[in-house]
Amino acid sequence: MEDRIAPLDQTHDRAAFSCGKRGIDNYFHRHALQAQLRHSAATFVAVNASEPQRVLGFYTLIAIEFRDDEMPDVVARKLKVKGMGSIPGILLAQFATLESMQGRGLGRLLLTSALEKCLEASNNVGAVAVVADPIDQEAEGFYRKFDFVSLDPESPRLVLAMKTIAQACSRRR
To answer: What is the CATH number of domain 3-172?
Structure first.
């Protein structure tokens, strides 16, 4: 029995999914499939090959853009985008694992998949970073384990440079 990650579709049982966070569960139950069908967001689910309709976890990706004045100078210089006018990125908009699967490594598998998809997308469209908005301190701690850093000291928003993702992916190969 092996977990796999696939695009969300109508066969996945969204109603049975619960990560324990009402806002995330609500998004997944009510909005994820509609956003997927409208191409306004891309959601991917982790399922077990033996029970492919049961969702074990998911993540949602959305294209974003920053203006120069929205990004702190120190971050813009680090990403080498200062003065570009518009700065492309990818938002890791939703991210969760089934409550009973938490703490078992599924989050790492999902995040690795998300970052690989972001890197692939950046090679075709352009994006300098992946951005995350952690829902709480536990989520922030999770992202920080994977080298996400604060975009701004006064904001909970975290960022991971695409260059860092590319280096990590090339080391794994």
So the answer is: 3.40.630.30
